[in-house]
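Honest question from a wet-lab person: if I give you the sequences of every part of a complex, can you actually get the arrangement of the whole thing, not just the pieces? Trying it with mine:
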Amino acid sequence: MKLTRDQVKHVARLADLPLTDEEEEKYSQTISKILDYVEQLNQVDTSDVEPTFNVTGQNNVFREDTTDACLSQEEVLSNAPKKKNDMFETKGVFEKE
Amino acid sequence: MDITKLTLTQTLEALKRKDFSEKELNEAYIKKIAIINPKINSFLEIKKNSRGIPAAIKDAILTKGIKTTAGSKILSNFIPPYNATVINKLLEQGVSVIGKTNCDEFTMGSSGENSAFGTTRNPWNLNKVPGGSSSGSAAAVAADLCAFALGTDTGGSIRQPASLCGMVGLKPSYGRVSRYGTIAMASSFDQIGPMTKSVADARLVLDWISGGDEYDSNCRKEKFTFQSQVLEAKIKGLKIGLPKEYFGAGLDKGVERVVKEAIKKLEELGAEIIEVSLPNSEYAVAAYYILVPSEISSNYARFDGIRYGGTRDNFGEEVKRRIMLGTYSLSSGYYDDYYAKAARVRTLVKQDFEKAFEKVDVIVGPVSPTTAWNLGDKVDNPLKMYLSDIYTISANLAGIPGLSVPCGFSEGLPVGLQILGKQWDEETILRAGFVYEQATEWHKEKPSL
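Yes, you can. This is the full assembly:
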């Protein structure tokens, strides 16, 4: 399975990864090789097999609905690259850049 | 006496006898780190404590107030405001964090070379890789720079470096230890575990860190409990399975010879050796490299450069590759061909183990197909790097526990014996590992640095 440079560009945009031209070429090659390798999964007959997403067999794990200590606002903001009025500062959603 | 040569268990006994103080213990390790770490680059951060049992913590595990980078440039200034659950549990036991250990960026790698902060070197030969991704933890324990370490294992990242560095590494069953505060790679695979100087130490640390946590819904409430009488038990009559698929093409002759000798030793100790088959294990690496990147592509959306960390151009090469591979596998039109297919193969791999464990108590084989390789050998070939984990990945797909125990040397480099167990049955693999360790001298061998 060949992942073309255009597909690499598309996937990188979906994943919000800025890539250089050189990287696009390199990923097109290396990811294509990995996809070739995983093709072998098609040799396995899985028509009557259920998928596994979790191996613990646990479900509906609940805790008591009580309040607990949590991080202070100061702690939560302690690693933020940009802050304003004790809040995270981010780019506007509706504005252009 | 060189305090740093003691195992964790021996250190605790010596402290109880007042052979030395916690202050002297910490000073001895700090002194040794100052001399040895520049040669092997196993620590990214070093704390000069005067109290506590010095533990080295993989840098993918959050430590309050101590810089935690996960080996990534994107977190180069990140100081966690809280501790991972395992850290709180260790602190309660009188353990202190002596340092944070180097690792492949976000635990993605098998050689330690994917760290943004330089590669760790193998203490047995400085031109060789230490294995990965828990590269720094393995090297630090092997070089006696800490009493024990914690690592994380998503596809072999505890067991494989333990094998390549000649020390003990335990990946518990998925859900045995809380993952809260571990920087996730692939959430349905990740598990924290002990990296230690002896099997008894691994058991003790698992006892300390296991148990329920309301911050991790997949974490089992039942804790692994330390039953001292079990360690003294023998392995007479223990049924040991040998999977024929783990001794085929690709296994280095030297590693095969050493592992087969170890199996002979187990037989001499009274175990019964039975051939088993894990027919779907040949598809494990392929299934893993669909499922894990898919979980990564979802998990790594959180790195938005707004709440913490740098911008997404700071991700390293392998991290970007896996995010894209996962994004592609999950994208519209490909989901059934890739993700859903791989999740079904995961079921088959799991069923292979369930069938085998109807006949045997544990399964043994090599951890890694080769000993430590030269630095740089596989960096340009990601697929070749992925195949280094061919014998360890299946256990993560199935969620079962696995132990790596030193079992000899091939051309001067350590070889590990892998002991896999039934889900939740760490006890039996630790017993087999302990009995083997007691009957051999390999764990006493130390690298000369």
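Two things worth pointing out. Residues 21-38 of chain A form the longest helix (18 residues). Chain A touches chain B through 47 residues (CB under 8 Å).
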